[in-house]
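Researcher: Let's do a round of design. I'm pasting the structure tokens now; please hold your answer until I've finished.
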């Protein structure tokens, strides 16, 4: 067994330590390891030295989901560079559109959640966690209408169909929308459309009781402060009084305190109530959850 303190890479060692400590689930940790290391074979060799515990579980996941892990590794390494600066919002949107158009063609499940390892059952488990949280926060109901920003392949749209009156999903990727329409075919109250990524044009004031952004807002954040402000303004506009905004992950900058400060500032600026301030309520996923409400 390889002692963790002998691993030279600080990033790789941190991934393994978080998994051992229970700070991140084995699927999340495996995805992080696929990103931290150059080749899947290197990950396989490293994990093969662990015979028990959560690291052995990571090795099992890799063995049983090898093709999906290969696809997830490609997607992770092609992910738009969050470290680049001074890009215009238009450039960011174009980069993200191209990335997701390609990713969904490679592997539908991994394109929206690399940590699903391309496994529909794992993706369903992550989706179920999100639905459980929405139920807990009492933001669903048969008389409510919802908008999901960045609906991807429609996995949450399909799950919401039986819990809402109407649900709309938008995405900047035309390929994502095409897959979502196929997956949601036959669901009459699900409406899916391609969007510009710049605003919520096409939706009237006070159209929705719920706006959901599940792991999509980090890409808006990449587009800069103005794009973030426009979206908070637009979300406020399309929400009905008393409507809810559920934000799952604000950015990928790995600073929860900075994200919370930004969300607090934005809520003050747009007159929104911040009910839940960046908790981590999930067992499988490491997403940070904000519950925001437009006052009556």
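Researcher: That's everything. Go ahead.
Model: Designed sequence:
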């Amino acid at each position: 067994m390889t002692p963790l303190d002998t691993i030279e890479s600080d990033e790789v060692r941190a991934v393994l330590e978080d998994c051992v400590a229970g700070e991140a689930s084995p699927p999340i940790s495996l995805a992080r390891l696929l990103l931290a290391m150059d080749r899947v074979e290197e990950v396989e060799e490293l994990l093969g030295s662990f015979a028990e515990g959560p690291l052995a579980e990571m090795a099992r996941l890799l063995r049983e989901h090898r093709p999906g892990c290969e696809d997830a590794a490609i997607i992770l390494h092609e992910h738009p560079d969050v470290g680049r600066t001074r890009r215009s919002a238009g450039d960011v949107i174009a980069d993200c559109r191209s990335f997701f158009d390609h990713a969904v063609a490679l592997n539908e499940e991994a394109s929206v959640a690399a940590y699903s390892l391309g496994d529909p059952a794992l993706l369903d488990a992550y989706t179920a966690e999100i639905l459980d949280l929405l139920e807990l926060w009492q933001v669903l109901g048969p008389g409510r209408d919802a908008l999901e920003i960045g609906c991807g392949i429609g996995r949450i749209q399909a799950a919401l169909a039986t819990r809402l009156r109407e649900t709309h999903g938008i995405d900047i990727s035309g390929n994502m929308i095409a897959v979502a329409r196929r997956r949601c075919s036959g669901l009459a109250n699900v409406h899916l459309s391609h969007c510009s990524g710049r605003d919520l044009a096409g939706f009237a004031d006070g159209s929705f009781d719920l706006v959901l952004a599940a792991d999509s807002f980090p890409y808006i954040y990449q587009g800069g402060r103005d794009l973030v402000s426009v979206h908070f303004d637009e979300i406020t506009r399309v929400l009905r009084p008393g409507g809810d905004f559920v934000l799952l992950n604000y950015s990928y900058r790995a600073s929860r305190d900075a994200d919370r400060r930004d969300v607090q500032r934005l809520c003050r600026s747009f007159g929104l109530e911040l009910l839940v301030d960046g908790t981590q309520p999930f067992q499988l996923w490491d997403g940070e959850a904000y519950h925001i409400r437009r006052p009556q």
